[in-house]
Specification:
Layout lengths: L3 H6 L8 E4 L3 E5 L9 E5 L11 H22 L3 E5 L13 E6 L20 H13 L2 H4 L38 H5 L9
Antiparallel strand pairs: 1-2, 2-3, 3-5, 4-5
């Protein structure tokens, strides 16, 4: 595999610290974390950007992000969680990955602000009108040639993730901090995973 993200998600890269995985995704510790527990959720199948994923994969990643957020809250007691992903040229792995980052007041993590403040030069109503026109335009007219994805029209109906691979329903973290990762990831009625 040429893609570093594919190698990481499929356990082909040495030294990767996998916290959770199933047949669709791997959750690994970021090698340059903002805070302890900073995770990347990576699909095992190759995708560059979020809009390339089928509905089943994107839904599964979101469900896993809920479970990983609960895990981070239980393990590190952060003040909050930031979830984000970078696409296009800002995707430094060349493979889709979602960041799940435990956050603390005063931790120095900052959203990158525009160089010239928040002024885009356009009133918000003009920006909205441009987006609404693009939404209503035929797909071929809405995107510049470099951004078109011709394979989108040929995508099959979204597949569903088999129930056997589904994550447990999100649960409220107990008041006690004594629960283990395996207890958090066990489905209701199943014994904890060892």
């Amino acid at each position: 595999m040429e893609c570093l993200g594919c190698r990481i998600a499929n356990r082909l890269e040495p030294g990767v610290q996998i916290v959770y995985e199933d047949q669709y995704v791997a959750c690994v510790l970021d090698i340059a974390p903002f805070n302890d527990g900073h995770l990347l959720i990576m699909p095992k199948e190759h995708y560059l950007d979020v809009e390339e994923m089928d509905e089943a994969t994107s839904t599964h990643i979101m469900r896993v992000s809920v479970t990983m957020s609960q895990l981070l809250k239980r393990a590190f007691r952060p003040d909050g969680i930031t979830i984000c992903q970078n696409g296009g040229v800002f995707n430094d792995l060349g493979h889709y990955h979602m960041h799940v980052i435990p956050r603390y007041e005063g931790d120095g993590f900052a959203w990158s602000e525009p160089k010239e403040g928040f002024l885009s030069g356009r009133p918000l109503n003009e920006v909205k009108e441009k987006l609404v026109r693009a939404l209503e335009a035929p797909e071929s007219a809405a995107l510049p040639e470099s951004a078109k994805a011709p394979e989108l029209a040929a995508l099959p109906e979204p597949a569903t993730v088999p129930e056997s691979a589904a994550l447990p329903e999100p649960a409220t973290a107990p008041e006690s901090a004594s629960a283990t990762t395996s207890e958090l990831l066990s489905a209701p009625g199943e014994p904890p995973k060892e």
